[in-house]
Amino acid sequence: MAEASNNQDALGLLSAALNAQDGASESRHLTQLYTLFQTQPGNLAILLPSLVSLVPRAKEALKRWIADVLDLAFCRATLSSEGRNALAIHTPDAVLAFLNDSQLIHAKKAIQVFASTYTPLFRQCCNDPSYHKTWQTIERIKERIAYLFEQGPQGVKVAAIKAFQKIIQVQTRAGADPRSRNVDVSVSMVPNHHGFLQPAALEGEANRLLTSVVTLVFTSGNCDLIMACLNTLSLLAKARPPLSKIVIEALVSWTPAALAGQPYTHIRNAEKTLRLVFAHFERHNLTGPHRPQIQEALQAQRQRMEAAARADWERKEAEAKRKRENIDQEIEQSEKRQRMAAAEPSSSDASSSLSGIEGAHAFCRAAAEDTRPNPLAVFDATTLQLPLVIDLIMANLTAVPDEELQRAIERTRSRLHGMPQAPPPSMPPGPPPLAASASQAVAGPPPTRRQIKAEESGGAEPMQPLPGAGLPENPLKQDLEDEDLRKLDQQGAANQSALTAPGQELGADEEDAEDALAGLEDFELAPPEPFSQTEAKALIKEAVGRMCDAGGQAAAGSAEFSDAVPSQTLWATLVIRLASRGFETVAESPAQEGENDGESGSSSSGKPLISLRSHANVIRQQMLDFLSADFSRRIPFAIQWLSEEWFCDVSRRKRGQETSYNVWLPKVVKSVLPHIEEKDRTLFHFLAELPSLPDEVVDLVAGLCHDKERMAVGFMGLREFAVSRPPIRERALKQLLDLSRNADNGLRQTAIKTVRGWVGGGGPFEAAVLESARESIKRLTVKGENGKAPDTDTTQKSSAVADTNKVNGAANVADGDKGIQEGEGEGEGEGEEGERPQRDPTKDWSFALENASQVLQFVEMPFVLSVKIPSMLDEVFAAYPAMSTVVQKGVEQHIAALVRSLGPSNPKLLDLLKTFPRGADGLALSVFTVMAEKGRTQALLTTVKNLVSDRDDVDAHFLIPILPHCTKPEILKLLPKAVTILNSKLPEDRTTIKNLFASVVSRPEQGFGSVSTNQPRVRDSQLLQPHELLGLLHSNEEVIGLKTTAEAIRICFSMTDLFTSSVLAAALNQLVEEPHLATLFMRTAIMAVTTYKSLSGFISSNILSRLIVKKIWQNELPWKGFVICAEQTAPGSFAALFQLPSEQLVDVVRRAPGLKEGLKGHLEKKGANNKARTSAYLELIEGAGAASPTASGAGRGGTPGGAAGPGGGSTPLSGSTPLHTGGEGQ
User: Fold this and answer.
1) Helix, strand or coil for residue 1047?
2) Per the UniProt entry, what is one GO biological process (predicted)?
């Protein structure tokens, strides 16, 4: 409902605007609708087709508004790309109408809209040939744009260049990357035999437009057009790599010849744009074989820009000189106006009306008139502007002759020494020249009260020289040479003689003044009171702070192409040397309590000596703060400072003084580190310029490696230190190698990647890296403090602590371990043991590794290096037997990734499987298991077969993967040994054997062809039949072991799809024919009857009778199984039991009393024809319960004839003929 309301508002506003009676209402409604489009772009997509249809008949105000709406829709991010593409088909007619307008008011926006919509328009015309009319409109638009490109105003031309870029990009073929074919719109999308799009014509048009753009770069005298063309060419070269050759060859030969006569800033802007284009090519790898040409073009451009900058500076200097020369003319004109103004009746009005250069001129002239009052005393000099004052001063100084300027300086010096001012000998009467007057006015001191009186009286009073004692020192005197001072003294003496010549009388006032001054000849000012330490530091801090602030601001304001603070500036050198050299000595000072913080002593005068080194540290701290504020721009200042400190430390070491370089460089690095960002090389550019680096800096840089965001910066710095800084190479390499054992996976792997590149080429770091890897292997063999590996409980607790406690190391590790061991011996609780702090295995080698994560810390780098140095695996295998069980399992777990990366055909792995040392079976088996995961190569199978045949101590697990690929004789030979893995009683081994049986046994006949596709494909003749497997297990029960064989048989019975009742019957029939009856035969028969009830008749009527023939009662264990089997198969087994001798029959009844009644019933039913025999057996069965166990002949081979009958007589059965009833038992 809300969307419908919004649409209704938009339609209502549009309808109100179209039906407005006046222009104000129309403008208001259109403005509201435009705002609605901005906030609810969905309305724009609905109304745009209707709006563009209004363009041909719309008034100017509506046209302008529709142009703004098109700009909003297609040139800004108002609509999604899909929405713009869908609406693009409605724009060509409106764009053409705007371009055909004679006034070209909306041509620029129309061209921009066309440039944004040309790509989707071209795609739609390619995919739908029905847009032929639309394409004709597009062709007319392109023709109109080409005309405006030649004849239109500048803004339209810039927009046309952008449109040319889109047309050229679309109408040229895309690159060979298949990923961009469905995304990048190009002429390659045009299908064959298209109705109106001809690829050849389109490409020709694109080439012509490209030629026009390139030509404009060389011929145009408009800087803006040239920059637009350069930007367009750079984008085309990136989007269409085949065009990069044309673009680069054109741009490397460009010169600003067409811009001759243009302002320097315009030429500089074009040159900068070209330089950015070349940088764009370099960044996107578009230079190809043209890199040398681009470098030459950049060098030539640099020379052009320097020459142009120099010429522009000379031009500006000439212009300034011309202006200075014209100032004299302006001053003369000002004098005329001044004389006219002086004719006014009121002098106050005249003075108040003076301003600007006129007032300045009058002020200078009045200041030069010494014999009359100054008429401009009321003039306010602050009303003059600073540039005007500077121009006046410079003009006056350049206009004054050198001789006159020198005389003015001499007169100023004379005034400072109290000597009278002698008029120049060549000065004509009347007012002096303006330039000379100005210089005198500036240099001369204000007149005294006596001089004013003398001037008012019209006479000149000679000035008495003041005594030199007690006068402040003249600052100008410090700049004079000795010869100048002698001349000045001689001139002063001559003036004094002239003033006191005979014939001149002194007045009373003058005599009194002379007497008063004479009394000051021996006057001596008290020495200035020295600053305290605190005051001195505050003063130094304030002064240096002002210099740093002013210097930094001046450098930032004057740097045009560089943001760096100039290092070789006066203020920087002054501050740096003041800190490094200015306070090296001690000075006398009034030592106040708490202020003597340096070296102290006493001078020859007995005054205390205070070290000034703390003042230098105050300056150094200020420089550190100055650098920290904007380090990236003040690197040259930092380099100059620390280089100066390093140089001064050389002499300090000779004098046995403390050094500063190794103290303040780490402080600078510490202040910079928090501001270092990812991939920021600013710090290392700074460190690369320094003469040396202390170990502390290396450690600080290594600390960056622990920050995940800035890890790359830290490793980059350590790598550069190791490669390019030999003095700290060992320290940097040690940091990297220590990080290669870190507990953090990401940190450790990055460190390993950093150092592994130094291995394999025989470089200077290879030996150190390999030695570190060997130390890691050695750490794996460390056992506990008592020489034993940790037990399972301790390992589990340590693993839990390792997962929850990330503390690296702890104090008193040995004592803590000892306490834990004692607690375990005394039976303390688990909670107390679990509180043991985690120890760092990289620093503490007194304990064995406790979990797989700790093992990975030390084994990962040897495994990584073994890719380049295969012999590293030999060392791992050699150390494996000495490792604890926990470590061995960890190594077996982590070697899997290495084996997978090397592959099953790796020669080194195959060689290790042949030659691994004794005790390393577990590791070799892990390697072999991983190698056999994705297939068994012939080389791998051959290697393992040879291993099994050559070595008797090989683990049976080696046979599991290869048995499915062996021939039938090999299976019969190797399978019994493979079954021995069941001795471990592990569930996974039981599953392994079950899978092995399924892979080496063929299916029964009804299952042929249903072999799982996951099993190896071999011929059925090479597989075992199920009954053959059972026979193999029974025949090798002594080799395998009775319990293991029984477990293997149980596994067979669980595979009911293979071991069916018919298979078991065949197996039992085969086994009973063996000369030596297997011990587990009866157990198998019982399991067969239990599993398949249908086998009861077969076993009772067939198997049991054949066992009686084999005298099974001679072996106790099979005989017990026989009785149990007879009991389970009853009554079918009764016929077979009556085939037993009497003693064995009695033993059966005694062992299985439950058979007595069944046997009696069987006799009564089957023995009716021979009552005597039946009666005898009945008596025998009845008396079986009273017979003692010793009376039984079981196991002694007794015969029926020897059995005692009822009543103690002989059996009624004569001979050994058994009772046959109804032929059963045959």
Assistant:
1) helix
2) mRNA processing
Paired tokens of 630: 């904007």
Residues in the chain: 1226
Confidence of residue 392 (pLDDT cuts 50, 70, 90): confident
3-state secondary structure of 921: helix
Q: What is the DSSP letter of 1100?
A: I
d(CA 627, CA 615): 19
Give the distance from CA 461 to its chain's centroid: 85
Token pair listed for 662: 């190794």
Q: Residue 910: what residue type?
A: L
Task: Let me know: does 634 contact 564? Beta carbons within 8 Å.
Answer: yes
Query: Any residues with CB less than 8 A from the CB of 925 and at least 6 apart, and which?
Result: 955, 957, 958
Name residue 843's amino acid.
K
Mean pLDDT confidence for 1187-1201: 38
- Report whether pLDDT(378) > 80: no
Eight-state DSSP code of residue 589: -
Torsion of CA 353, 354, 356, 360, to 10 degrees: -170
d(CA 648, CA 645): 5
Structure tokens at 686: 């700074």
Structure tokens at 1017: 């494909």
Over residues 1041-1075, the pLDDT tens digits come to: 889 888 889 999 888 888 888 888 888 888 888 88
**CA quadruple 947, 951, 957, 962: dihedral sign:** positive
Rg (CA), the chain: 56
What confidence tens digit (pLDDT) does each residue in 189-207 have?
888 878 888 888 888 988 9
- Tell me the C-alpha distance between 167 and 205, whole Å: 9
CA distance to 400, 784, 845, 921, per residue, from 882 (Å)? 99, 12, 15, 13
C-beta of residue 849 within 8 angstroms of C-beta of residue 733:
no
Q: What is the DSSP string of 165-223?
A: HHHHHHTS---S-GGGTTTS--GGGSPTT-SS--HHHHHHHHHHHHHHHHHHHHH---H
Can you list the alpha helix ranges (DSSP code H) found in 881-1011?
Answer: 885-902, 907-915, 921-931, 938-950, 959-962, 968-979, 987-1000
Residue type, 913: L
Chain-centroid distance of CA 43 in Å reads 44
Closest CA to 851 of 839, 862, 864: 839
Query: What does the buried/exposed string (b/e) look like for 109-128 if buried means 16 or more CB atoms within 10 Å of the residue's CB?
Result: bbbbbbbbbbbbbbbbbbee
> 844: burial class by Cβ within 10 Å (0-12, 13-18, 19+)?
middle
Give every CB contact of residue 658 below 8 A, 6+ residues apart in sequence.
652
Digit-coded pLDDT (tens) for 818-852:
333 333 333 333 333 444 556 788 888 888 888 88
CA atoms of 444 and 436, how far apart (whole Å): 12
Q: Which burial class, exposed, middle or buried, applies to 510 when counting CB atoms under 10 A from its CB (0-12, 13-18, 19+)?
A: middle
DSSP state for residue 586 in the 8-state scheme: E
Cα of 207 vs its chain's centroid, Å: 43
Establish whether the linkage from the previous residue to 1131 is cis, with ω within 30° of 0.
yes
Task: Name the one residue in this structure whose structure tokens are 């103004």.
Answer: 341
Q: Which pLDDT score is estimated for 462?
A: 43
CB 116 within 8 A of CB 84: yes
Question: Using the 8-state DSSP alphabet, how is residue 1057 labeled?
Answer: T
* Phi, psi (degrees; rounded to nearest 5) at 377: -65, -25
Residue 647 three-state SS: helix
Alpha helices in 1058-1155 (DSSP H): 1061-1072, 1081-1091, 1096-1098, 1104-1109, 1116-1129, 1134-1137, 1142-1151
Spatial distance between the Cα atoms of 1058 and 382, rounded to a whole number of angstroms: 116
**One-letter amino acid for residue 75 of the chain:** C
* Strand 586-588 with 600-602, pairing: unpaired
Give the angle 1102-1105-1111 at the CA atoms, nearest 5°.
Answer: 140
